[in-house]
Specification:
eight-stranded mixed sheet
């Protein structure tokens, strides 16, 4: 297991106190190499977090995200593993924790997700279980490993990337809707467990956002259904995640916040 780290340049570190602040605050983003995940990583870097960027396969995209994090004035680490694989997840996270004994992850963004769309009549078993494993089971695999340090520090932010599909259900996405709907319910339950420990748990539910996830969809037809008449930008979703990761959101927990241009 290898960690790749980029440290801030001398120009980015103006004082010793700034350096200490930067290096003592960690955020972990699953599926952080592209799309919304990449935008979230950059946003958190600008907020002063050292960002741990999880990804499963695309090394070039992950390295580009890491470069963008450094360009934003932050530092980051790449942690390559499949969040749908329980054993691999435990090994990777415990390895990071062992190598950072004095640190803990303050902000966790469960962003990793896949789509395998089809009408239920023709949906293959593998397409059902792949989506459930990556979009829902990964929430358990990843989140559980970070809870004890958050509880011990009585501080933490858990932000789950849900979807419009999990709120209203979309035809051809029974598997995706089920996974995201389950993630929404889990968000509400866990928020109640952790609120006494000053840990918030919220979900963000994007509509159609310009990423790889919307490739193959009829963009013109979908835009006509959106009151804002456009798809969202990853940076707009990242701005909402940044707010939920900030101290300003400390009284918001168990919520699902839609960001969809008015589409319901």
């Amino acid at each position: 297991l290898k960690f790749f780290t980029l440290k801030p340049s001398n120009k980015q570190i103006k004082t010793a106190s700034n350096f200490e602040y930067l290096m003592s605050k960690y955020a972990f983003v699953t599926g952080g190499s592209r799309g919304i995940g990449r935008a979230v990583c950059v946003k958190l870097a600008r907020m002063g977090f050292c960002v741990i960027i999880n990804y499963v396969s695309n090394d070039a995209a992950a390295q580009e995200t890491l470069r963008l994090v450094q360009d934003a004035g932050g530092s980051g680490e790449l942690l390559k593993f499949d969040v749908a694989d329980t054993e691999a997840t435990v090994k990777a996270i415990e390895g990071w924790q062992d190598s950072h004994p004095d640190d803990y992850v303050e902000v966790l963004v469960n962003n990793a997700g896949v789509r395998r769309d089809n009408l239920m009549l023709w949906m293959e078993q593998d397409d059902w279980f792949k989506v459930m494993a990556t979009d829902l089971n990964s929430f358990y695999n990843v989140t559980r490993k970070f809870l004890q340090p958050m509880v011990s520090h009585r501080n933490g932010r858990i932000i789950n990337m849900a979807s419009l599909s999990g709120l209203k259900g979309l035809p051809g996405q029974t598997n995706y809707s089920a996974a995201k709907g389950g993630l929404i319910a889990a968000t509400k339950a866990l928020a109640q467990e952790l609120a006494p420990r000053k840990i918030t748990v919220n979900a963000v539910a994007p509509g159609f956002v310009v990423t790889d996830m919307v490739e193959g969809l009829d963009e013109a037809s979908l835009k006509a259904q959106i009151p804002a008449r456009r798809f969202g930008k990853p940076e707009e979703v990242a701005a909402l995640v940044g707010f939920l990761a900030s101290p300003d959101s400390s009284y918001i927990t168990g919520q699902v916040i839609s960001i969809n241009g008015g589409l319901y």
